[in-house]
Amino acid sequence: MKRFLQMVLLFCLMVPFFIPAPVSAQYNKAISADPVGLAFGIFNATYENKVGKSNSFTLFGSYFTFSGGDWVAFGFGGSYRWYLNVGDGNKALKGLSVGPYASLGFWQWKGSSIFNDYSGGTSVALGGEIAYKWILNGFVIEPIFRLAFNLMKITGLTYQAYGLGVNLGYAWK
Prior knowledge:
The protein has one domain (25-172): Beta Barrel (Porin). Helices cover 10% and strands 55% of the residues. It is built from one helix and eight strands; from the N terminus they run H-E-E-E-E-E-E-E-E. The protein has one helix at 2-18, and strands spanning 29-33, 42-50, 55-66, 71-84, 95-109, 120-136, 139-150, 162-172. Residues 4-23 have low confidence and may be disordered.
């Protein structure tokens, strides 16, 4: 009986080695938006395209309100991402990514003009981003952090181009 139980145990331990692992879907494109940013007056939608085994580029469009709605802007930008293998075996569009990004914003002053002569202007920001993307049956969840530095000053506008959010969306082949 002892010999029989040893054989059953050995069989149970060996079975996983002979069953092929499910092939994980390879995604090449994703589209997402950040609903967390809406609480802070920012709407951001992002398109991502895989360009290599561990690389992708993104294009994004944004709408901002700042200082209680006195400043309003729309903008666009892009980034290049490297997906790092941190032991989880993930490749591009899944897992940890880092890379540079750039954005262009077109700002307009909507507040009172009694005590100032603010009109608006264009902002250019360069920086970096770090994100971690999960794709669950095509559904995207991506916490992201961006930090950038403004290269152009707009009179009366004092903001730092950084952001923390969670992109939600869809990925496909």
